[in-house]
Every structure is written in structure tokens, then in C-alpha cells.
Amino acid sequence: MMLRFLKRLWFIIAHPATHLSLGFLTMGGFVMGIIFWGGFNTALEVTNTEAFCTSCHEMRNNVYEELKTTIHYTNRSGVRATCPDCHVPHSWPRKIARKMQASKEVWGKIFGTIDTREKFLNKRLELAQHEWARLEANDSLECRNCHSMESMDITRQSKRASEAHERFLFTGEKTCINCHKGIAHQLPDMHGQDMFGASSHGTPPMTTGQGGSAEVEAYIRKTAD
Amino acid sequence: MRHPHRSRMKGAIMLKRFAFACALLVALPLHAENQLGGIRPDTPLAEESEAPQIPPVINADVKQVRNYPDQPPLIPHKTDNYQIDLNVNKCLTCHSRTAVEDSQAPMISVTHFMDREGQTLGTVSPRRYFCTQCHVVQHDAEPPVVNGFVDVDSVLDNMQGLGTGGE
Q1: Model ipTM?
Q2: Which residues in chain B have Cβ-Cβ distances shorter than 8 Å to A69?
Q3: Which range of residues forms the domain containing residue A160?
Q4: Which of A10, A54, B127, B148 reaches 20 to 30 Å from B165, CA-CA?
């Protein structure tokens, strides 16, 4: 039964159409191509808007609220970045690749991976690390979509900013995300994390009672080996 | 039973209070019209003055003079949205002991490693962790009330000049 149906289907596909003209099929294929492709791309672009991102409470109540206080949301000139400007590549093949990766986020949404504030805070470091790794790997591509090194006039920056950019950015020693972590959202617990890539600074103070002298000795002996 | 003397005294006190209240009633409007200065100069009490422009933060990266030796140094740059909480201290990403080589920023002073008993710790003391409790940025603004503070150096110079002796 099934085999017969498949055979018949193959017969229809493999043989030329008897009643439809070549012109109709060509034009029909062309028009349907536009409709399907246009529909697909429109749907894709809809998922690429801030309204779509913040339609889920996970984004709206956590990261979007944090963004609102930063320079990427409110500033003197009124030019602002929306979620996809920083989190989705702009060129088409890269965008599709990122969107396919993001299908895991749909899984997370369905199973409520971060559906409470507590769950989100517990997972925040891991989520942030994914973004840092992505931006480090593509040389802060999404930052550079707007902030181009060629157009950056460091004489109009503060002394401290111009020195840092001259020393680390223009030499290629570091990329934007190395120093500008937490520029648009709050940082997770950075204890033991690398703020600037190589070594770790800016971690919270040691709490009292943390690590007795025996533990310290054991650690020193271990690093000496 | 009423004591006549006490009742006379009471009457005198009442009279005094009344006189004081009258004086206040007369003085208050005068005060409001003539002496309200500072933050809302020349605005009648019942009216709302136009809010002044919020002055910008000084972002010159030039160290400013301390008014006395143990004044917490002023922050000579913007600190908008600097995160200082249990998770991270944005200031320490440049001013910590290990960060100053990269950042060339001044290191936090050694007093910040001491606990309240003067015991030096390995890292920043928790009581010195929240930078902006003591260190503040400066705004490019005229103070609404004139500050009569005199630097100790000028006091010393003045005394030495007068010969009253600083020693």
C-alpha cells in the first residue's frame, strides 16, 4: 500500500506535466519562491526584534530592565542598540548559524530553565560566559558593527579612554569585550573570573574564616610541585 | 485650691508666649522674602522655581587637591553605571593591586587592606569595599552656598606671617 503510493508519487515527479505549460510552471515556481522566501525571511526578521525578545518575561524582567539604565539604551544623541544589534550577527549566513544555535533557547523556554529570578541568577554566569566566548571568538563583531576603529576619534575621548584604546585596541592586543564586560547588563558573580582576559581583577573581598593556614600551606605546596 | 501667685506667674508666661508668637508671625514672611537664598534664590515660598540644569561630571582625569591630608581622594572621572556589589567591583578592575600595571591607575591605599583592628588582610577589607561610600565624583557647578573652608596651609602661613607662631 505505502510502496504503491510512493511509486505513484515518484511517477508524477519523474514525468513531465501533461496539462501545465512550461511557462506556467516556471512563472509559478518563481512567484511561489518569492512568497515562500519572503515569508521565511519576514518571520526571521520578526524574531530579530526587541519586541520579540522582550515578549518573554525571562528577557523582559531581567536583562531588558538592566539595559534600560545603560548608555546603550539611553544617551545624549538618542541612537540606541536593541537586543539583536549586539546578540545576533548582521550578515545573513552568520545570522542563520546563530539562529540555529538559538533553537536551544526555545528548549530552555519550554522547560523553564530560567523562568524565575533565582534560576536566572544561578545560570547567569554560564550564559554570560557563552556571550563573552562568542564575542572573543569573532573579535567583538557585533560591537564593531557600530563602533568602527577607523571612525573612532580618540582625541575626543577622555584621557584615560584614549590611552587604553591606543594601547590595547589599536595594537590588537585586546578586543572590545575583554574590557567592556557588563557594559549593557549587570555582571554575574565575577569571583575567579577573568575581567580582562589574562588575569583576574575586581573580585569581591575575601570573607573572614575562609581558608585556614593548613589549607594555605597545602595550596602553596601544590603550586610549587 | 488656687494659689494667687502661681496664677499671676502663669499669666506672665502666657503673655510672653503670645508676644513670641506675634514676633514669629511678623518675622516669618520677612524672612521668606529677604533671606531665602542658596538652592532657591528669589523664589517666593509658595512658588516652584525652575529646576537648574544638572551639571556634568568632571571627567578630566586630573587628580584634584585634597583639602586635608586624610580626605578620601576625589574621583576625577565619570563612574556612571559602575557596578559595585557582591558580584563585582568595577572600580577594582583598574585600581586593585594586580590591575594597576595594565590600567596605570593609582592603586587603592594600603589602609584599604586593614580591618578595624588595624590587622592587614590579603585582599580588600570588606569595610573598605564600597568605594563610593567615601570617594565621590565632582560636578562642574557653582555651590549654591558659599563655602568658607580655609586650607590648613593658608592658616599656618597666616599665623607664621603674624608671628603668633605655629609651633
Answers
A1: 0.73
A2: 81
A3: 150-182
A4: B148
